[in-house]
Amino acid sequence: MEVNIEQLEKDFQAKIDAGINIEPKDWMPERYRHQLIRMMSQHAHSEVVGMLPEGNWITRAPSLMRKMVLLAKVQDEAGHGLYIYSATETLGISRDEMTNQLLTGKAKYSSIFNYPTLNWADMGAIGWLVDGAAIVNQTALAKCSFGPYARAMLRICKEENFHQKQGYQILANMMQGTEEQKQMAQDSVNRFWWPSLMMFGQVIKTLLTLMNSCVGKLNSIVMTIYVSVLLTEQCHRQKQLE
Ligand SMILES: [Fe+2]
Ligand SMILES: [Fe+2]
Predict the structure, then answer these.
(1) How do residues 190-217 score in pLDDT, each as one tens digit?
(2) Residue 58: CB partners within 8 Å, gap ≥ 6?
(3) Counting ligands in written order, which one lies closest to the CA of residue 129?
(4) How far is the CA of 114 from the centre of ligand 2 (A)?
(5) Ligand 1: distance of its center to the CA of 70 in Å?
(6) How far is the CA of 164 from the centre of ligand 2 (A)?
(7) What pLDDT, in 10s, does the model give residues 152-194?
(8) Is 22 helix (H, G, I), strand (E, B) or coil?
(9) Where does residue 226 rank: exposed (0-12), middle (13-18), buried (19+ CB within 10 A)?
(10) Under DSSP, is residue 63 helix (H, G, I), strand (E, B) or coil?
(11) Residue 78 alpha carbon to ligand 1 centre in Å
(12) I want to staple 48 with a disulfide (CB 3.0 to 4.6 A). Which of 36, 67, 81, 232 is the partner?
């Protein structure tokens, strides 16, 4: 039987326009499949690589409670990697192949995880800012057209809320502590606020570079805008998930 590609493409587009999810057994254009594999595997790799700097701090967490919280967070990130690897496998690529692409450098992961974690406050800044930025990106992905990815994102976003809260709590506690602890928290935020903004991609980088070249010290203003975007986004997201 002759397959009419044009008709298949039309049906595919009609589904997208109607907001119907595309499922693994549905026909999809090769380019759509290819882009999804690239994007989802990069996301899964970022979840797994993202665990590494935080995992290093489990034994150095300052209290048993903090160890338990960090352990739970790191475990969540491993789970996120697994959900997304499984969702990507439905597109016809094996986990071995994806791992191989990561190890050979063919597949990328989020560059934020290449920054070293120098002190305990970094666990706070990462949770608050990096997971916060990830939530903003992932909330949009929860509405994407590929069913397994969208459903994985819904669950992941709920868990990310806990990650952001624990990060905020670490920093808020340290800011009520000794002068040294306050300095440590400030140092960490100074190092992480800019790289976490980069998680929004090249557009925001160009925009911020332009702004910085026009007006001298904009860091605090940009930081304020960023935090208000995060907070607004979080309120909006919580309403959606309830
Ligand atoms: Fe995650
Ligand atoms: Fe997270």
Answers:
(1) 999 999 988 887 655 565 555 555 544 4
(2) 67, 70, 71, 74
(3) 2
(4) 16
(5) 13
(6) 7
(7) 999 999 999 999 999 999 999 999 999 999 999 999 999 999 9
(8) strand
(9) buried
(10) coil
(11) 8
(12) 81
CA 156 – ligand 1 centroid, Å = 6
Question: What number of CA atoms fall less than 13 Å from residue 27's CA on the CB side?
Answer: 13
Instruction: Please give the distance, rounded to the nearest whole angstrom, from the Cα atom of residue 138 to the centre of ligand 1.
Output: 9
pTM, two decimal places: 0.82
Query: Which ligand does the CA of 48 lie closest to?
Result: 1
Q: Rounded distance, CA 179 to CA 27, Å?
A: 60
Q: How far is the CA of 156 from the centre of ligand 2 (A)?
A: 8
Whole-Å CA distances, 129 to 99, 100, 170, 208: 27, 30, 12, 17
Distance CA 70, CA 77 (A): 11
- Measure the CA–CA gap between 102 and 11, rounded to whole angstroms: 34
The answer to whether 136 and 230 have CB atoms below 8 angstroms apart is yes
Output the CA 65–ligand 1 centroid distance in Å: 21
